Amino acid sequence: MTDRAFAVVRAGALTTVQDQGRPGHAHLGVPRSGALDPAASRLANRLVGNPADAAVLETTLDGCSVRPRCAVTVAVVGAPCPVTVDGRPVAWGAPVRVPAGALLDVEAAVSGVRCYVAFSGGVAVDPVLASRSTDLLSGLGPPPLADGAVIPLGRPTALHARVDTVPHTAPPRELVLRVMPGPRADWFTPAALRTLTTRAYRVSSASNRIGLRTEGPLLERSFTGELPSEGMVLGAVQVPPDGRPLVFLADHPTTGGYPVIAVVREADLPGAAQAVPGTPVRFVPAARR
After folding, report:
1. H or E element that contains 190
2. Which tens digits make up the pLDDT trace of 39-54?
3. How far apart are CA 16 and CA 94, in angstroms?
4. Does residue 283 contact residue 180 with C-beta atoms inside 8 Å?
């Protein structure tokens, strides 16, 4: 077996392989998938000298621990967290050289939800439909990391960045989502439309890579029937029978039968990737261009 690999010592709550996803296959029923915070993924790759779309690890809340079989440059960005190599603190948000056989420990996030761990050469699992991303809904791509798994790495193609600090966006204390009217806004009462953009919600602990669920006031329909399944897009705000808005994220289904009251601007979705349960959420009307 090649020495360009790492062994998983602690997989964490949910650690997956992600790149920039597999867009363009919705007509086949395949979600986009990819990193929920794509800017953080690209930055991590830049720090270690990878192409922006190289595959990285995306951790959830409590990080992960791995032991590279070769010397490798690593960068951890996204949610701020302690990072150690063989128990010694090292930099977060900067390239770090990890010797062969050393234990890299990405600890629990101090704030935010998801960390992105890039390795020089990239994570080299087999691509599916031109992407190495794990898709939790369809099952495409590699499975989530498991303790004891050995994950291959590619070969570096460039020198890592030499930086003192890097720009990054802090996890949101309040998640502000700009929305445009959805295709089924007319399925809701005028009061429900006002409620969506004037009342406060909170991020639910039931949120995941498929969608950000919310807790807060219910949205009343003006129609009681059901829709035939229709196409769904990234950022769609669907309202299931419980009346609470659900924002579709990267692993969302490509079709659905609940009405979409609004659509979130894609630029606001990385904040949803880092919003911990309980974070206040406001839906605000997007300025018309």
Report:
1. helix 190-198
2. 999 999 999 999 999 9
3. 21
4. no
